[in-house]
Amino acid sequence: MRIHEVNIFIIKMPLKTPFSTALETVIEREGMILEVIDEQGAKGYGEVVAFSTPWYTEETVKTCYHMLKDLLIPLVLDKHINHPNDLYMAFNHIRGNHMAKAGLETAIWDVYSKLKSKPLWTMINGVREEVPAGVVVGTENIKNAIEQISSYMENGYERVKVKIKPGKDYQFIKEIRSFCPNLALMADANSSYTLNDIELLKSLDDFNLLMIEQPLAVDDIVEHSILQKELKTPICLDESIITYHDAKSAIQLNSCGVINIKIGRVGGLRNAIAIHDLCRKNDIQVWCGGMIEFGVSRAHNLALSTKEGFTIPGDLSASNRFWEEDIISPQVEVFDGKIKVPNQPGIGFDINFNRLHQVTTYRENINCKHK
Ligand SMILES: O=C(O)CCC(=O)c1ccccc1C(=O)O
Ligand SMILES: [Mg+2]
């Protein structure tokens, strides 16, 4: 395979309703879609999941644009690529910048599967044709949270995650639990606590949560292991797991029972699969995380979630969770708490170009002649 051209689309779309985490409230989502075109004209799509500002990780849409245009795309343009896994070594001398790398790597996985006329999920040895869905409530207000949860339950979601932070925790979860005592419920703190909050975090054991996600800081793998010894509720790590080595450290130190795998955060599908394989060997549960993403990334998440270890529902929701109209066709839909995995080659969804062009704020073509 040889990539002759890459089109960059920077896009912006308002969320249906604002989404609040401990770190940031997102009202409008900026993002980037990459279209790679190979020498035979086959097209593949990837999404760069960085935000406009570096609140979740260090990357932003602009840093990704720079990394892609000036460093990463030139490494693949007009080069013979045997397999998408080889990009890991090709990109290895560039530190970090996982979301930029993942956007390009996943686009190349899509085109590679299309050239082989196979769905991406079978190319990566997925084992299931439908994937359990999950949804996240990111609202500050308890009344709104309960309203949203009840409407998601009506839509068939069987697992709900809520965002917590200091001051919006024990009482907040208590009220939700009394509204839905049997729902599979979990809480994500986005690293807003410290070990000084250990009594509060222990008190959340009262609520039979599936897990508590990223209670402590990003670089606190050691402190998460101290906390996990004190909690009955399993800890799930998100922000702390950037590399395979991080996952190894967390497993060795018993810092968590669960890892949330995001393709963007870990630098691509190859790394996501490597972490999945490591977790399986070590009896650590995994699920696929979400990034308030558009349909292209949702489609890649769906393919990843067909891997054997992804047995618990991830943050994989329908397109209409966040968007009036997504940029893919058909949109991702949830039936009976599950999402059907498409069987067309590649990611299995078409781009809705009308919608893509409507939300595009900047577009650029990069081809071999630029080198
Ligand atoms: O897209 C989704 O459904 C997940 C939403 C979510 O929790 C999230 C969204 C953006 C950045 C980080 C996170 C997170 O998992 O911490
Ligand atoms: Mg999280």
From TrEMBL:
<keyword id="KW-0479">Metal-binding</keyword>
<feature type="binding site">
    <location>
        <position position="238"/>
    </location>
    <ligand>
        <name>Mg(2+)</name>
    </ligand>
</feature>
<feature type="active site" description="Proton acceptor">
    <location>
        <position position="262"/>
    </location>
</feature>
<feature type="binding site">
    <location>
        <position position="188"/>
    </location>
    <ligand>
        <name>Mg(2+)</name>
    </ligand>
</feature>
<feature type="binding site">
    <location>
        <position position="213"/>
    </location>
    <ligand>
        <name>Mg(2+)</name>
    </ligand>
</feature>
<dbReference type="GO" id="GO:0043748">
    <property type="term" value="F:O-succinylbenzoate synthase activity"/>
</dbReference>
<dbReference type="Pfam" id="PF02746">
    <property type="entry name" value="MR_MLE_N"/>
</dbReference>
<comment type="pathway">
    <text>Quinol/quinone metabolism; 1,4-dihydroxy-2-naphthoate biosynthesis; 1,4-dihydroxy-2-naphthoate from chorismate: step 4/7.</text>
</comment>
<dbReference type="InterPro" id="IPR013341">
    <property type="entry name" value="Mandelate_racemase_N_dom"/>
</dbReference>
<dbReference type="InterPro" id="IPR029017">
    <property type="entry name" value="Enolase-like_N"/>
</dbReference>
<dbReference type="InterPro" id="IPR029065">
    <property type="entry name" value="Enolase_C-like"/>
</dbReference>
<dbReference type="InterPro" id="IPR036849">
    <property type="entry name" value="Enolase-like_C_sf"/>
</dbReference>
<keyword id="KW-0474">Menaquinone biosynthesis</keyword>
<keyword id="KW-0460">Magnesium</keyword>
<comment type="pathway">
    <text>Quinol/quinone metabolism; menaquinone biosynthesis.</text>
</comment>
<dbReference type="InterPro" id="IPR013342">
    <property type="entry name" value="Mandelate_racemase_C"/>
</dbReference>
<dbReference type="InterPro" id="IPR010197">
    <property type="entry name" value="OSBS/NAAAR"/>
</dbReference>
<feature type="domain" description="Mandelate racemase/muconate lactonizing enzyme C-terminal">
    <location>
        <begin position="142"/>
        <end position="234"/>
    </location>
</feature>
<dbReference type="InterPro" id="IPR047585">
    <property type="entry name" value="MenC"/>
</dbReference>
<comment type="similarity">
    <text>Belongs to the mandelate racemase/muconate lactonizing enzyme family. MenC type 2 subfamily.</text>
</comment>
<comment type="function">
    <text>Converts 2-succinyl-6-hydroxy-2,4-cyclohexadiene-1-carboxylate (SHCHC) to 2-succinylbenzoate (OSB).</text>
</comment>
<feature type="active site" description="Proton donor">
    <location>
        <position position="163"/>
    </location>
</feature>
<dbReference type="Pfam" id="PF13378">
    <property type="entry name" value="MR_MLE_C"/>
</dbReference>
<protein>
    <recommendedName>
        <fullName>o-succinylbenzoate synthase</fullName>
        <ecNumber>4.2.1.113</ecNumber>
    </recommendedName>
</protein>
<keyword id="KW-0456">Lyase</keyword>
